[in-house]
Amino acid sequence: MSKLPRCIHKSHKSTPSSDQAYAIRVHDLHKSFRLPTERAAGLKQAIFNWLKGVKGYTEQQVLRGVSFDIRPGEFVGIVGRNGSGKSTLLKCLAQIYYPEQGSITVNGTLVPFIELGVGFNPELTGRENVYLNGALLGFSHKEMDAMYDEIVHFAELEPFMDAKLKNYSSGMQVRLAFSIAIRARGDILILDEVLAVGDAAFQEKCNDYFASLHGEQTVILVTHSMENVRRFCDRAILIENGKVAVEGKPDVVATAYNNLWKKED
Question: What is the CATH number of domain 6-109+221-264?
Fold first, then answer.
């Protein structure tokens, strides 16, 4: 009989506890994936592999005991090279993945900006997709009516809202999705490289928006941009080989991140 996972994912809103001083507490998080290595051609081969003890997969350990705390109102950067485990960590926080071991405590509502535009229908107009995406985010039709003009104005797409989404450029679609997503104000925002949306002018508008959140909302930014880490973050965490390698001031973590590449040269 397999053991039950030892991961606990808790969400608190009003229950007093020592965890209440934090927006998020992550303790000893472990996550692995099974990668197939050999496929059985049939039942006979599968039985033969089982008798020989051939599993047909390898275990890839992605997170190896990650722990950290984030206080309410902090803007925290999570950085690391591709394959370091940072995106897996983000998806564990968003409850897309469930780790095998450890605990995640979340105090308040959490809104992840991971895949902008999920749920968009290319056969519908931009206007129709605003209401569709808003419904997926939990807004009523009346609430979307109140936000509609502001969403379209921020996206700078007023002349195109009655055109089908399939006729939008990829940049226009991302701008519309982003403009809708930022209306879903939760207690905690998780951002996965969404500061790099649209052209330079629109990126600057997004940067101004996130700068306005500083100190007002808890934000976790997963990024490769050390410029954004230094610009926005109060603190940063470097993930390397599935572990917290460095945690501290943005300049310290950004320097450590850049030094990882120098070691390879």
Answer: 3.40.50.300
